[in-house]
Amino acid sequence: MTEPIQALLLGAGSRGYDVFARWALEHPESLKFVAVADPDPGKRQRMMEEHGIPLNHAFANWQDALNANLPIQAVVNALPDHLHEESATRVMQKGYHQLLEKPITNNLSGAVRIAEAAEASGKVLMLAYVLRYTPFFSTIHDVVQSGQLGEVTHFEWSENVSSIHYSHSFVRGNWSNTEKSSPMILAKCSHDLDQLSWILPKRIKHLSSFGSLLHFREENKPEGAPKRCLDGCPAAETCAFHAAKIYLTEYVSWPVNVISTDMSLDGRIKALQEGPYGVCVYQSDNDVVDHQVVMFELAGGGSGTLAMHGHSGEEGRYVRIDGTKATLRAVFTDRKQEIWLEPHTFETSYLTGGHQIPIQAPSGTAGMGHGGGDDGVCQAFVQAVQNGTIEPTSQYLESQYLAFAIEEARNQRSMVNMEEFRERAAVRALQV
């Protein structure tokens, strides 16, 4: 019987604790966390208690953990985006396999350098682009790559972020401010950009983009609203984003469990009184866009769009890919996951009374979030480490290239040539 992989967890927050650490507890034969690093003593304590981690293997910072020469084979890196470059590079230099939370990092030159460090190390570096490991998106990938659609002529990809999710993560949360974290197109849509680079048979040649922060601005705050919701807001009854309505109910799963390790009512009230999740959504420091559209030209012909916004009632993605032979449509939400194929024939379009052919994705893994992708990426990482499967890290870079090219296009109101942009990025990475 294969022994479980001994691992260090860097960052015991929402993804680190609720996804990767939870998976390890459910699969003790595959992965065991023997050490943890997190600046929050409460998060370290719960990891020690639940995973049997000794006190001398619990660290307040990731540097001390990596300098401790722990008896580990792998590192699961769930630190904040801006810490990825230094920490991930150091992990690879230490000779550990690494599962790195997406995105690679919050700057393009750093992403290139991480990829180079991984290639030089000869160890597994897997990015947690979990949609690759879902039966749903794997099915879309296989249909498109098989040629059933013919030549791809156009695609429409829509990322609809629920307004509550947006307010939690991108107004009050860790990804609210570009300087402190990542631009919205990278923080939220790196999954989508990874999917486009993985699914489409053609690379993207040119792109342009428009977007802005439309709603969550101070001029839109209710009259008389205080800085913090619990300080007597006159709009408490009517504002959908009042912190008490989101964080002080009987519901204590995500996103509520992010605000504190103490889920008692008093613990949550204290978190709202002192932390960012109690701040009025119209008076925070957020500057990331709440709506954005990207237009693409494909190499060899074809076009497409990516639309993202934070004002949806239902969280989910809508996909349409048109080819010369058929059209694929797909809906991926918490409530519904459906894929249809529409052949471009007279019979299916006019004579059958309904031309959508359902495609059933394999049942696959569905035990965790993102349609089974969280479970899938953990399984894939363990298998890669056990089998010594080293895949080119460059496969993950295209989503990073696209995200930063999109931001350049949006900020400069320009069209970006992707071939030239990739070359510029490679040169900048060498200059630092």
UniProtKB/TrEMBL annotation:
Which residue ranges does the record assign to the Gfo/Idh/MocA-like oxidoreductase N-terminal domain? 7-129
According to the entry, every stretch annotated as the Gfo/Idh/MocA-like oxidoreductase C-terminal domain falls at 144-391
Domain of life, per UniProt, equals Bacteria
Gene3D superfamilies xref list = Dihydrodipicolinate Reductase, domain 2 (3.30.360.10), NAD(P)-binding Rossmann-like Domain (3.40.50.720)
Recorded protein name is: Oxidoreductase
